[in-house]
Amino acid sequence: MTKTNPYLAQDRPIVGDVYTSTEPMTLLTTLCDDFGSRFGGTEGAKLASDLLMEKFQAYGLHNVHKAAYDYDGWYRGEATLQVLSPVQRELTCISLPYCHAAEVEGNVVLVGEGLAKDFEKEKERLNGSIVLSQSGGIHRMEKYDRAILHDASGFIFQNHYPGYGEVTGTIGWNHEATIPGIGVSYETGEFLKRLHKQNGDVRVRIQTTDELRQTTAWNIVGELPGRVWPEEVIVVGCHYDGHDISQGANDPLSGMVVVTEMARVLSAYAADGLGRTVRFVAWSNEEVGLFGAYHDARQLSDAQAQVRFTWNLDSAGSPGGRKGIQLHRVPDFEPFIEHAAEEMALDIPIGQGISGYSDHFPYFLQGIPTGSIMTVGRPAGRGFGHTAFDTVDKTDAMAIREAAALGARIVLRMLSADSLPLQARSAEEVERMLKEDSGLEQHRLREAVYEKLGRENLRQYCDAVRT
Ligand SMILES: [Zn+2]
């Protein structure tokens, strides 16, 4: 049985326009091929912020501006990995962001995917060691923090995908990383494992030369004001920085251009009738610690804006599956999505679960319900993500269109509905989730690291936001 669709007059031009539009792929290609990684502190980041601001203006958003903030930017230096015994060899590696200049030496200890039980098995040997852990399974930061908690001296992060070179990913989150960390290819990691298997102890030296310098970054913000409840805000954002070794075409830009496309069609076909305000944000510096999102969440909280929901559309247009909605533990909102799906005669997969790793997290900390667009049926893991191979040629225009059409129609309904079944979480409820939710294990490990090392030794940006 089909439901009548009260939004048909907007849905038709929105979907028709999105599926015939070349805007997102043109923008994505320019951002990648002309501006490179757009990593914080690069000229490309500045040029990308200018272009995104132009787009927000051209699409008719109101109050378009850049929100600047200063942070400790990370600048890559040369890194070396030397095998000292049983053979002598120089291996290729790269520093992981927020590594500092360091030189450490130790025996390699293998901890597989870096689960608690993997560290437990090797605990007698970890003090002063160089931990070798591969990507996949759990997030890199959990592996890295366990290495710190077990008194390792260094961290080698092996790509678990053959043929995609070195893998990257931050290890510091706006303070210098505690122990040096480097990324190596699958093949380099396997070489070390073979040496270890054949000879027992493998001694290595890691040298890194990276620097932190005060740097300015910009979020780009634009709005479509609500006509009925303008003080109620729905945030729709994605970050625009990629990792410095990458074009970051799928992560993040396949989501960034979903956001610009949603802004374009909502402005063109629905702007006059919106009840609530929608705030579009291009966040900066997600990859190194969510700094842009922390900055925006703090600005909104200072302005006492009533943010009803934040959509984090990081990588939303990734290829390889169909699009669904991931709610970050907001079960009460599921019926709203189900109802919208019936109206649109769509089968929309809905998931529930949260992690602390992307730009929704600073809003979550303020009690704001959050969600994202997920790609169902895509193999787990990053694949070419966070490597030099996340390039324009691997993007999929149809996946971007599917995400943009879905996102625009869901947000249209959230902006127009008489009531939204969304409750802000109390500070106690947020605390409870941080302590108990299985997806937020990283947060608890980080707390344990701070406890072990002394929080005052670390310039922790998040503190300012949470207090
Ligand atoms: Zn991302």
Written overview of the protein:
- The protein is of the alpha/beta class.
- It folds into two domains: 270 residues, 3-Layer(aba) Sandwich (Aminopeptidase), CATH 3.40.630.10; 133 residues, Glucose Oxidase, domain 1.
- Helix content is 36%, strand content 24%.
- The protein has 14 helices and 16 strands.
- It has an eight-stranded mixed beta sheet, with helices on both faces.
- The longest helix is centred in the middle third of the chain and has 22 residues.
- The radius of gyration is 22 Å and the shape is elongated.
- The C terminus is likely disordered.
- Bound molecules: zinc ion.
- The site of zinc ion has 6 residues, from helix 7.
By DSSP, the count of extended strands is 16
The structure class reads alpha/beta
Percent of sequence in beta strands: 15-25%
Helix proportion of residues, in percent? 25-40%
> For the record, what CATH class of the largest domain applies?
Alpha Beta
Order of helices and strands: HHHEEEEEHEHEEHEEEHEHEEHEHEHHHH
Query: For the report, how would you describe the main beta sheet?
Result: 8 strands, mixed
Number of helices: 14
- As a whole number of angstroms, the C-alpha radius of gyration is 22 Å
Low-confidence stretches: 459-467
Separation, N- and C-terminal Cα atoms = 51 Å
CATH-defined fold name of the largest domain: Aminopeptidase
State the fourth-level CATH superfamily of the largest domain: Zn peptidases
Shape: elongated
| Small molecules in complex | zinc ion
Average pLDDT rating: 94
Q: Return the CATH architecture of the largest domain.
A: 3-Layer(aba) Sandwich
